[in-house]
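Predict the 3D structure for this chain.
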Amino acid sequence: ALPLLTDGPVEMPNKYTDKASDTLLSSGGGFLSSGQPVGTSVGWLHDPEDLPGLMRNIENMKSPAIMLSIDRLTTSRLKNRLEDRILDLGIAAEIALMHEPSGGSGDGKSEITAKISSRGAWLLGRDGAERLLISKELKALYGARSKVAHSGRADAKLKDMLPSFDKLVVRILREILRREAFPEWASLVLGAD
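Done. Predicted structure below.
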């Protein structure tokens, strides 16, 4: 839940246990707590009062897909290469917006960009103008992800767009978690949800 409340990285430190060397556990390669406090690298925490609700939403949803999407969001924040960050954010959006409530990942026959942008726009947008802006931003994110995936290169100008891409993926994940289920996409996009 923490990655959905911050725009910075959330990670465990590299070393928070030490190998036991002077106990019976040492022969089996056991580990003992180092006694050092376990800290996290957390950016500015937004809406900390939302943490218990998000944790409850995640527990109630019980979805490996949403966990993988959140993991990709988190991973994107830990990487230095622009290309790696774009790939992870694009994958996070794709997982969240292409997952079907039945557990599948879509039919694979439709253009993914159109599906992602329309699903995200209807999921988050309150009116036509807002949906158009969200659709445009999702097309830009998925287009950047596709370019990186197929060429291994990202335009340097995309670095300035990372914060808005990140915030958009967070909004998508939080809205799905608020519902505690993936939407019935056809109903949502046709305005019946």
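The first helix runs from residue 51 to 61.
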